[in-house]
Structure formats: C-alpha cells, structure tokens
C-alpha cells in the first residue's frame, strides 16, 4: 500500500538519449521554479542536460486520500464472458492509441489517466483514430490544480469525466505543447463534443506482481474481462528508477528498451501500462514484461515507451482501470459567461414537470468541474442536463428547467439545447428571457409542447428487422432496397461490429458474440431502427 508520507524526490536513473549516454548515478531532481523564482513543488528528474524535462510532482498521502484509494473496488473479470488470454497484447501499436506527448508541469496523473487511458477507452467505443481524436488532459487538470502546475490525483480527474465527459484537444484554446494551467475551453461546441462519452466507473487490480494479479491485468488488457473486441489500458504510480537496458537478440521486441529495476507504488510519477508480452526478456530465465507508456515525450526509453519485466511488478500494490461508456446528450444548457469567478463559482441544474414550479423537483451538480481555478473566465460552456430527459419526454416535452449558481460574475445569455436521439441533430434552441444576470440568480426556461414528441423519442422498432441464429453467430435481415449501416454494441455502448447491409439479404454479423444482451442499430437513410439481441449459446 501507499506510505502515508511525502515521497522523496531522490531518484536513480540510467538512461540513453540520442547520442548523449548518461551513466547510472544517484540523481536528485532539480526543483522547477515559477516566473517569480518560487518553487512549484515539481521537479525535473532527467539527468541528461540535453534532454527535455522529465517532470514529477510528489504528492502527500493524507488519511483522506488513503481512504479514497482503499475504497476503490477490486476489478473482477466476468468468467462467463472473458476470453482466453493470448501471449501478447500491444495497444500502443493500434490506431486508437494516441501518440506519445510531453506533459506540462506536474500533470502526470491527468496525462496518464486522461491523455492516454481515457482517450483509449473513448476511442475504442467508435474506432476513432488516436492521432485525431484525443481527450485533452488539461481539461480536468485545470479544474483541480488551483491555477498552478502542481500535481493532482487521477481519480479526481476521472470523477469530473463522469459528470461531464472530456473536452477534446481539437476544441482546446491552445495547441498541445502550449497549454496553460489556467485556461478553459471557451466554446459551447467543445463541451457538447465532450458529452458523447463518460467515465462510468473505475477499479483497481491488486498485486499485479503475483500470478493471480498479473492474469487479471492481462485479462483487462485483452478484452476488459467481458469478451470485448479490444481491452483496456491501466494507470499506475511508480518511482522513476528504471535502470534502462536494451532487450537482447533472441527476445521478442529485441532492440527495444527494458527496465532492470522498478520502484512501484510511489506517488512520484503516474504512467500507463498498455500491453504485455510473455516472450520479452532481459534475463532469459525471467520471461515476460508489460509495456509502459510515459508522458515525457520521445526522449524517454524507446521513443516514449519501456518494457517492465513481470518479476519487477512485485513492488506495485495495484493499478487502476477505467470504464468509459457512450453517452447521448439530449439536453444541455449553453451558458455565456462574463468575468465568471473560477475559484468560487459553481452550477446546479434542475427540472420540474410543472411549468409553474418555483423550485426544481430534481437537480444535479457538476462535482469539481467548472471551478477550482484562479482568476476569471469569459466565454461559453456547456452543461449537460440529460439526466432530466426521461421525465421531460414522458411529460410530453413540457416542464421547467432551472440553472442555479453561486459565486460571482455574469451570465450574459442562457439557452436550453434539445437534441434528437443521436445527440447530433439540434431539434430546438430555447433562449432564456433573463439576460445579463449576476451569478447567484436562479434562471429558468419553460418548455411547453415546444418540440414534436415523435421527433424526440423516435421509438421506431419495426418487426421487419429480423435477426436469426446461425451455427457460430447471428445474422440480420434489413428489408430495404438501399444499403443500411448496421452497428452491434454491448450494453455499455462499446461497438463490437459495424458493417453495411445491401438490399434485402441476410447478413452474418462478422464477429463472434458472447452470450448476453446486445444492441443492434440499423440506419437506412434518415431512418434509424434499434433492436435488442439476446445472444444465447
């Protein structure tokens, strides 16, 4: 377990960077100063004066933090759905994995937990390319860092993404490499784009250095323990003493870099495991290694990655894994702000079925999002309030929406955005009559039969979409004269298969489905049909 103290920053490294070989030696991290010459609590631990900064931000394990870490549930695979684990998995080489990048400041928890883990888990839901579709790690970091470049806890970043999703790099005001510790995304569209996935929950895998823990880790990486087409990656904390060497010929991944020492369970630096290989070794008597991905740019290890032998994982008490699921934003507030106090302000959304209500019947807050920073913010944000969707739709698209706030600043304009069941087509934009109101003023928007309820619900499930069982899979019949796009997902929104059905023919689902419930979506032109498929083998 974590020690309840501040981890020291005296570290031992042996690295090779380009043509600058650095002998292994004791190396104390160099304190990083701010523009006023004050220490920031972060340290550069790269011993190579020619290399880029390798930044760590040691954190204190308070009793409260220790209690949070202890309360994280242990992950268990679904024994009825989990598939046999192969001898190797390498997500780093798959298209959904984002390229190596250099974290700024002491943001390693966000860089690993959001930049790598959340991006990967989000991208495999839709098959998005990691070179183009990347979650912006500074999005939750800048709600949590107090305006500085110090460290944060990764679980706090994941908690924010459970409430709001994560803004993409493409929607961030500064390009990657120029991000600052105080900026927020400024356009409503950026927040709307973030709302198509969510952190569902997170777990820990205990003792990955034991045979049982290692098998669990492999299972998660291979298929999430549920038979998924692609498995996951994990976050962990460790010291930065690696004793880096070159993998010898005869081993898998020969010529790559491998660690000969590893000090796990330190709060010095957060990183990611993104694969494993049972045939990688430095010592042929000790085969097998996991693949470490770092956020110190390509100067670290083998262009940003490093193999860690299985037998060195005994110092790691646990790693952390994250479930990301699809989310459809049906209801959102578009909020235009002026001089919003980031350090003291916050929002709560509410809804009542009665248009004459003076208080909401249901409400939701946004946790630590949209607060906890310094100075003020002027721009647009988006607040998802789709949790009220079912009540609103069942009430014939009628009700009263509330936006409550506290702090200081001005809400110049407020809009309620109503989307169809894809979350992409805006059905109605309703402007609040109140404008230029002070933060702390409750704002309301009444909706009374303003939207065609048939457009909103789109509950079209015709019997003409047929599904039948074959020997090893299922097949689908779409009775249309034009091509249809078919998607098969599990109940968590993970895409298992996508294919095109042409004309009126039976089409076999091109993957082997596990027993259990699946969702089949058929799109034909502007029509969308949804069927439940309960696979029984």
CATH architecture of the largest domain: Alpha-Beta Complex
Fraction of residues in helix:
10-25%
Q: How many domains in all?
A: 3
Which CATH class of the largest domain applies here?
Alpha Beta
Ranges with pLDDT <50 over ≥5 residues?
A: 1-27, 457-463
Secondary-structure class: alpha+beta
Termini separation: 42 Å
**Can you give the mean pLDDT?**
88
Strand content: 25-35%
Rg, rounded, reads 25 Å
> Considering the protein shown, what is the CATH homologous superfamily of the largest domain?
Cysteine proteinases
Largest sheet: 7 strands, antiparallel
Query: What is the CATH topology of the largest domain?
Result: Cathepsin B, Chain A
Overall shape? globular
Description:
The protein has 537 residues and is of the alpha+beta class. It is 14% helix and 35% strand. The chain is built from 8 helices and 30 strands. Residues 1-27 and 457-463 have low confidence and may be disordered. A hairpin with a 2-residue loop joins strand 1 (10-17) and strand 2. The strands form 8 sheets. Strands 6, 7, 8, 11, 12, 13 and 14 form a 7-stranded antiparallel beta sheet that branches. Strands 15, 18, 20, 21 and 22 form a 5-stranded antiparallel beta sheet that branches. Strands 17-16-19-23 form a 4-stranded antiparallel beta sheet, with no helix packed on it. The two termini are 42 Å apart.
Give the helix/strand layout.
Layout: E1 10-17, E2 20-28, E3 30-33, E4 39-44, E5 55-56, H1 63-71, E6 88-90, H2 108-126, H3 138-144, H4 154-164, H5 188-194, E7 197-206, H6 211-223, E8 234-238, E9 245-246, E10 257-258, E11 269-277, E12 289-293, E13 305-309, E14 318-326, E15 331-341, E16 346-352, E17 362-365, E18 376-384, H7 389-394, E19 398-406, E20 410-419, E21 426-431, E22 437-438, E23 443-448, H8 453-457, E24 466-469, E25 474-477, E26 484-490, E27 495-501, E28 506-508, E29 516-524, E30 527-535
Antiparallel strand pairs: 1-2, 3-4, 4-5, 6-11, 7-14, 8-11, 8-14, 9-10, 11-12, 12-13, 15-18, 15-20, 16-17, 16-19, 19-23, 20-21, 20-22, 24-25, 25-28, 26-27, 26-29, 29-30
Helix pairs in contact: 2-4
